[in-house]
Amino acid sequence: MNVEFIANLADKTLLITLLISAPMLILGLVVGLAISVLQAVTQIQEMTLSFIPKIIAIFIAILIFGKWMLLILLNFTSNLWTQLPNYVK
Prior knowledge:
This protein is mainly α. The chain has helices at residues 3-42, 47-82, 84-87.
């Protein structure tokens, strides 16, 4: 195990993390922006008005993209475990 291997593994791990969290973050951002525009137009400044729709949107994103996210995680973990003997020298 050397510095290049650890840097490469950290790079892959961060990329997988960003890839998996992207659907939830993007959907939460879109819903939050829509709620903010609605609040600015109506001048309603209720905290739960922005919080609850974001949570619902993130749950919907998990329901829609959950299988895909799990598949990516399983592939990454499986690849990591199958390559483990090559990493140990």
